[in-house]
UniProtKB/TrEMBL annotation:
Pfam families recorded: Glyco_hydro_12
Keyword Hydrolase: yes
Keyword annotations from UniProtKB, A to Z: Carbohydrate metabolism, Glycosidase, Hydrolase, Polysaccharide degradation, Signal
Signal peptide segment: 1-31
Protein name from the UniProt record: Glycosyl hydrolase family 12
InterPro entries for this protein: ConA-like_dom_sf, GH11/12, GH12
Keyword Transport belongs to the record: no
Protein family according to the UniProt entry: Belongs to the glycosyl hydrolase 12 (cellulase H) family.
Organism annotation: Streptomyces mordarskii
Superkingdom, natural source: Bacteria
Transmembrane segments: none
């Protein structure tokens, strides 16, 4: 038989447990991070960096960094479509202009990389001019600052009268998919761009498959370094609502 004192204690404990449950339920979820400064950045998942990277315009651009990636919440202004885009908001693994993601093993020499599996998914919107692109940066040195010598771009989607740097240099099959291949010089580095033959909203691939294409075309060697891998957008006009829903990357 339960004594009256134990009954009171049990009741108090039950009441406290209920109160704690109510307080826990009432606590707000962890807030996302808003990035509006030109080169503002934040860390997500403890291993990736989301960056605003509004390098080509003075117009306002804001990102909401989420647990999986980011959403562009404001994207003012536009730039001519025959020139460079207004920004490259992205999420990345590795080192970009001294900003290195936590615990990254990049830069890493290409000859020592067995595979670099990665995955990303996008949300697209109407009324904007943009490409959705995956960026792969290579350099002869293990750079953690400044411009790398070769940039590989993988365009999942393009909307509007825009084209990659340079001119079309043929086609290629990479990762089981067909791509237009463009090569050129943007004034600071070599660029090789792979444009998907159809719109991709998500895709998993091995970064080293595209690196091999760059090497075969004389734009890198196996003694070079992989410095960062990035997923994001190049908007020329508008862009609010564009989102990287998810991103994962590792270098083995």
């Amino acid at each position: 038989m339960i004594t009256p004192m134990r009954s009171v204690t049990s009741a108090l404990l039950t009441a406290l447990a209920s109160l704690c449950g109510l307080l826990t339920a009432a606590l707000p979820a962890h807030a996302d991070t808003m990035l509006c400064d030109q080169y503002a950045s934040t860390t997500i998942q403890g291993r990736y960096v989301v960056q605003n990277n509004r390098w080509g315009t003075s117009a306002t651009q804001c990102l909401n960094a989420t647990g999986g990636g980011f959403t562009i919440t404001q994207a003012d202004g536009s730039v001519p479509t025959n020139g460079a885009p207004k920004s490259y908001p992205s999420v990345f693994y590795g080192c970009h202009y001294t900003n290195c993601s936590p615990g990254t093993n990049l830069p890493k020499q290409l000859s020592s990389i067995g595979s670099a599996p990665t995955s990303t998914s996008f949300t697209y919107v109407s009324g904007a001019v943009f490409d959705a692109s995956y960026d792969i940066w290579l350099d002869p040195a293990p750079k953690t600052d400044g411009v790398n010598q070769t940039e590989i771009m993988v365009w999942y989607n393009k909307v509007g009268p825009i084209a990659p740097v340079g001119s079309q240099a043929g086609t290629a099959t990479v990762g089981g998919r067909s791509w237009q291949v463009w090569t050129g010089w943007n004034g600071t580095n070599n660029v090789i761009t792979f444009v998907s033959s159809s719109t991709l909203s998500s895709w998993d691939f091995n970064v080293m498959d595209f690196v091999a294409q760059a090497i075969n075309r004389g734009l890198a060697t196996r003694s070079w370094y992989l410095t960062s891998i990035q997923s994001g957008f190049e908007p020329w006009s508008g862009g609010a609502g564009l989102a990287v829903n998810s991103f994962s990357a590792s270098v083995n």
